[in-house]
Design a protein that fits this description.
mainly alpha; globular; transmembrane helix; sugar transport; 74% helix; Multiple sugar transport system permease protein; MetI-like
Length: 274
């Protein structure tokens, strides 16, 4: 009994240390945003300062940060919804339907994961120029429909957690294929959807290269590009940049905390059913 209690204490202490290590970068970010540029450059900052609002005023005086926040929110939410829905649809199709060259096509989809996206950026730019989509949000939203990792994740989840008996029963009840997917399969895949949603949301929210290349109007730019462009006359304004980083990180934390609960509840429900 004492050995069990001692082992639990060791485990809890280890988890607390790991949690603190994960929180240190966020604490440092918030603390740094409250100090002057000279303090940020010269000192190790452990306690909060009193320069947050001065840094914030310089930030909004340099870039329209809240316009960038709205732009990023619109792009990220729209792209995440498309990403998750079509990845679930394609993954479900690869899992439960049988057609010629299914495995070959799936291997081809997986093969695209091995090609860095930066290699195709020139071709992507020329393609968007051909379709007259430059300086619009379409190049940032439409590619979300095709996500090789999402298709792989959803297929693996559908193989293990979506029984064919449920699908056949729904078909006998008169459900069409799209109706069956939307009403029956999609709710069953909610843990995988939440997982993919977190990756898709964070990836699109932090996307820097694509909006930098395809957007020319400053009022259309996203938060990462706006924050990187914050500079004083001779050097980067670190205080203002850290305030912008704080503003950009808060939605990610909120979204992650919400979706992680969906993952845990979905896994727990599956365990109970099992």
């Amino acid at each position: 009994m004492h050995k069990q209690n001692f082992s639990k204490i060791i485990i809890y202490c280890f988890l607390i240390v790991v949690a603190l290590m994960c929180l240190v970068p966020f604490y440092s970010m918030f603390i740094t945003s409250t100090h002057t540029n000279s303090d940020i450059a010269r000192k190790l900052l452990l306690l909060p300062g009193d320069q947050f609002f001065e840094n914030y005023n310089r930030l909004i005086g340099t870039v329209n940060i809240w316009r960038g926040f709205i732009n990023t929110t619109f792009i990220t939410v729209t792209a995440t919804v498309l990403n998750v829905y079509f990845a679930a649809l394609a993954g479900y199709g690869f899992s439960k339907y049988h057609f010629r060259f299914k495995n070959v096509l799936f291997l081809f989809v997986l093969g695209t994961m091995m090609i860095p996206g930066q290699l195709g950026i020139i071709g992507f730019y020329r393609l968007m120029e051909t379709f007259h989509m430059l300086d619009t949000y379409w190049p940032l939203i439409l590619p979300a429909i095709s996500n090789a990792f999402g298709i792989f994740l959803m297929r693996q989840f559908a193989d293990s957690s979506v029984p064919m008996e449920v699908i056949e029963s729904a078909r006998m009840d008169g459900y069409g294929e799209i109706q069956l997917f939307n009403r029956i399969v999609l709710p069953m895949m909610s843990p995988a959807i939440a997982t993919l949603g977190i990756f898709a949301f964070i990836g699109k929210w932090n996307d820097f290269l694509t909006p930098l290349i395809v957007l020319f109007d400053n009022d259309k730019q996203t938060l990462p590009v706006m924050i990187a462009s914050v500079k004083s006359q001779f050097s980067s304004d670190f205080g203002a940049q850290y305030v912008g980083i704080v503003i950009s990180v808060v939605p990610i934390l909120i979204f992650f905390s919400f979706m992680s609960k969906r993952i845990i509840s979905g896994v727990a429900a599956g365990a109970v059913k099992g």
